[in-house]
Amino acid sequence: MRTRAELLAETERRLLVDPRRQREIMLELRSSLDDAYEEYLAAGCSPAEAETLAVQSFGRPAAVAGALNDAWGRASWASALACALPHLLAAAVFLTVGWASPAAAAVLAGAAGVALLGHRLGTPLWTYTWAGYALFAVFGAGYLALRLAERQASNTLTGGGALSFGLAVLGLGFVLLAVLFLMHTVHRLAERDWLPGALVLLPAGPLLSWLVATDRSGGLVQLGRTAHQYDGAMAAALLALGAGAAVALRPRRRQLKLAAFSALALATEALVIHAFDPSARPLALALRTVAVTAVVFLPLAFVARSGLEAEAEGSIVGWFWRGLRPH
C-alpha cells in the first residue's frame, strides 16, 4: 500500500497543467488527504489504519490526474503558441536560408536551451515540443552515422582496411545508442502521459521522411541543387504542424486532443510523402503515411506495455483500451 506522500507524488507526476495551477491543485489534494487521515484517527483508527483508509479514499492517481487534466488541462493560447513556435522557426529556416545554413544549427541548439529552461520552470507543456527538435539532432546524427558506417563498410570491402572497419563499427554503435536514448526518453515521458511523448515525436515523421528523401537524391552528402529541392514542401508541412498543434492543444478532453493529433499527423505526413514521391500510388501513399505516423503514438504503446491501462480509468489510455476491449 502506498503512503499519502507517494500517492500525491504520482498524481503530481501525471498532471499536465501549467505550473501555477499545478501548485494550487497539489495544495488542495494534500489538504484533503490530510483531512481524511485526521478524520479516521478521530474515529478511533490506528495511524496505520488511518493511512490505509485515507489512501483508499483518494482513488487511483491516474484516474484523479486524468479528471483534473480534463478539467484544467486546456492549454492557453499563449502556451499553444509557445508549442507552435519551434515548428514555425524550422519552417522559416527551410523557407529562407535553407537547412544547410548555420541558422538551422542555431535553431536546434536554441531548442535544446529552451527545453532545458522549460524543465527548470516546472516542465510546462510547451517544453516537449522544443525538446522534440532538440532530439531530432540525435535522429539526424544517428542517420548520418549510419550513412558513414555504410560508406566505410563499402571501403572496407574494397580494401579500406582496419581504419574503415573501425569507423563503421563506431558509426553503427552511435546509431544504436541514439535509438536506445530516444526510446528511453519516450518511455519515461509515457510514464507521465501520452501527450508529452506525442509532442516530442510530432515533427519526427516529416523530418525523417525529408532526411531519407534528401539523402536518396544525393543532396545530403553533396550540397548541390538536389540538397534543397524539398525545402518548400518541408516549410509548408512544418507551418501546418505549427498551426495544427496550437489548435489541437486547445480542447479540454484528451480524447479530442488524441483525435486532433491523429488527424494532424496523418495529414502532414501524407503531404510530405506525396511531395517527395508524386508518382506513389494511393494505396502505397496511405500505407507509408500510416506507418510513419505510427511513430507519434509510440507513447501509447509504452503505456500499454507498462500495464498502466489497468489503473488509468478516466484517462486517455483507459478510454483507448476500453474501446478496444470486447464488451
In short:
Helices cover 76% and strands 0% of the residues. It has 15 helices and no strands.
Q: Using DSSP, what is the number of strands?
A: 0
The structural class is: mainly alpha
Q: Quick one: overall form?
A: elongated
Q: Report the average pLDDT across residues.
A: 76
The total domain count is 2
Instruction: Specify Rg, calculated over alpha carbons.
Output: 23 Å
Figure out the total of helices: 15
Helix content: over 70%
Give a quick set of tags describing it.
mainly alpha, 76% helix, 327 residues
Summarize the structure in words.
The chain has 327 residues and is mostly helical. It folds into two domains: 4-68, no CATH class; 75-324, no CATH class. It has 15 helices and no strands. Helix 2 packs across helix 3 (47-58), helix 9 runs antiparallel to helix 14 (298-305) and helix 10 runs parallel beside helix 12 (254-276). Mean pLDDT is 76; it is low at 304-327.
What topology emerges from the helices and strands here?
Layout: H1 4-14, H2 19-42, H3 47-58, H4 61-72, H5 77-95, H6 102-120, H7 126-157, H8 161-190, H9 194-201, H10 204-216, H11 231-248, H12 254-276, H13 282-293, H14 298-305, H15 316-324
Helix pairs in contact: 1-4, 2-3, 5-6, 5-7, 5-11, 6-7, 7-8, 7-9, 7-10, 8-9, 8-14, 9-14, 10-12, 11-12, 12-13
